[in-house]
Each structure stands twice: as C-alpha cells, then as structure tokens.
Design the sequence.
C-alpha cells in the first residue's frame, strides 16, 4: 500500500448548514451535500418505516441510538484514518474500546492486502452545479480505481437495506469522473457491526452506472422540491 498524493488535485471547500441542508461552498457557489439530497428525497415508504421504528423504541431511545452510532462511527473513521496515515501501528489494536475493535476488523479484513494505492482520504468530490460530498477514501483497490466508504452498524446488513450507501458511492464516483476525467471502476463499502462482524459490498460495471443514474434522478427531484438554484 502506498500513497499517491499527486494523482489528483482535490478541492478544498468550507461547509455550512443552511435551510436544514448541509452545503459545500465552491467559489461562492453553494452545493447541497450528497447526504442532504438523499435525506430530502426519501420515499414516503422509507419515511414511514423510520417513523414506525422511532415510535416502537421511543423517541428518546431513538435519539440516543442515533447519537451513539454517530459518535462511534466518527471515532472508528478517525482511527482508520490514523492507521492509514501511519500515526498508529498494529500494536495499538490491543484495546477493549469498541470502535477500535471495529476499526481493526475493517483494516485486517478489508484493507490489508487489498488496498494498493491511496489517492486521498476524506476528500471532497463534487458534480459542478449539482452536488458535493466527502469520500472516506479514494484509491486503487484490488486493481481498480474506486471510492470507499467505511460504515458501522448495530447488525449485519443486506444489500436491499443499504441502497442509500450505494447511491452515495454512485454520487462520489460520478462526480470524480466528471471533474477529474476518470472512469471509476467500482464503489466499495467496508462495514463492521458492533458484534465485530465484517462485511464488504462492491458495486461495479453496469450496477455502478445504474446507481450513478439513480442518484442523478434524486438530484433532479431535490431541486424540483426546493428553491435551491
């Protein structure tokens, strides 16, 4: 695994929350984030399912679960990033802290021996005039140029239940292709549950193109729903 910082020139962008949406600022042009677009354009069925879950567990408990998961995910991401940047080594894996154990599973089973080059970590990717987002990692993975997202979960996932993850990857790879003139080959999700169960999901070829097009459909819907221009 090696770093290739000069492969692409990724932009710097400030971020803000306005009108209930996260936005990225590019030369005075504000673009909505990928996650904001996905949240705003959820189907009524998905919204109803989420509301039923909140009612079932209770709103206070639902908020606690969400906050705890967000904190755990942020810590896990930071730990993986520190390892990739050489700030920590494998000796630090001896820990009882949950997020470190989960990070170790992703590193051992999803990164070592598979990730060949790193082009960037936590890099901003965008589609001009449409959207922007932050990819966890961009690099060469098992011979393919890919965007990778690290995820954590309370329980194992099935592909049918993580369509938004795939749409995110579609958004990132498409934006990268448009701005940097690439042809990204795949998008990869590296996920670990709180029970330390590792999962890898990959979308490539025609499936990747499908999710890119589906995300563009969500972008169109978002702009039709809002006053953002």
Sequence:
């Amino acid at each position: 695994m090696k770093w290739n910082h000069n492969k692409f020139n990724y932009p710097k962008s400030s971020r803000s929350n306005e009108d209930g949406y996260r936005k990225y600022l590019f030369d005075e042009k504000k673009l909505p984030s990928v996650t904001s677009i996905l949240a705003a354009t959820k189907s009524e069925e998905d919204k109803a399912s989420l509301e039923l879950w909140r009612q079932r567990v209770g709103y206070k408990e639902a908020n606690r679960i969400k906050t705890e998961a967000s904190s755990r995910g942020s810590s896990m991401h930071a730990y993986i990033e520190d390892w990739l940047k050489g700030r920590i080594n494998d000796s630090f894996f001896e820990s009882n802290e949950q997020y470190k154990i989960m990070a170790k599973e992703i590193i051992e089973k999803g990164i070592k021996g598979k990730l060949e080059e790193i082009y960037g970590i936590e890099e901003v990717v965008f589609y001009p005039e449409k959207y922007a987002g932050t990819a966890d990692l961009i690099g060469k993975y098992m011979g393919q140029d890919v965007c990778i997202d690290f995820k954590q979960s309370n329980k194992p996932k099935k592909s049918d239940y993580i369509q938004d993850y795939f749409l995110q990857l579609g958004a990132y790879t498409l934006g990268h292709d448009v701005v940097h003139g690439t042809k990204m080959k795949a998008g990869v999700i590296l996920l670990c549950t709180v029970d330390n169960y590792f999962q890898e999901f990959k979308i490539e070829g025609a499936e990747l193109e499908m999710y890119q097009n589906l995300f563009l459909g969500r972008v169109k819907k978002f702009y039709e729903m809002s006053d953002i221009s």
